[in-house]
Amino acid sequence: MATHTHTGTTARTNVQKASMLVGAVFLLVGILGFVPGITGNFDQLHFAGHESEAMLLGLFQVSVLHNIVHLLFGAAGIALAKTATGAKSFLLYGGIIYLVLFVYGLIVPQETAGNFVPLNGFDNGLHLLLGVGMIALALILTKGHTKAHA
């Protein structure tokens, strides 16, 4: 007599795991942006704009808006990880958004009102890495996978 151990749930795919991990990291970064000490010059944290001199880990210029964006991105990554299609979409389109932010950071002068998030050189470099990395995860982790035909 064989015992049945199936719980009725399916295992998460690698792209879902990646989306969960990336989402969790974004949530963590968003939270840490509000923690004095981890965020230097915390008393200079502004809601938005290049005037915010708060620096996450002493490198990345942040504002309340910047931290909220990280929190929302993290929540989206975790929520979309419920399905492989959602996870791939989060990683792919999120990566595209980060590449657009990278280009935006190169084009918009840092000391102008257009730098409302705010972004500095370290942010720009990280956005390039995030964009390329997220797109690569979306494509590599779903390579060869096709949707089931209805």
From TrEMBL:
It comes from the Bacteria. Keywords: Membrane, Transmembrane, Transmembrane helix. The chain crosses the membrane at residues 21-42, 54-78, 90-107, 127-144. This is DUF4383 domain-containing protein. The lineage of its organism: Bacteria, Bacillati, Actinomycetota, Actinomycetes, Micrococcales.
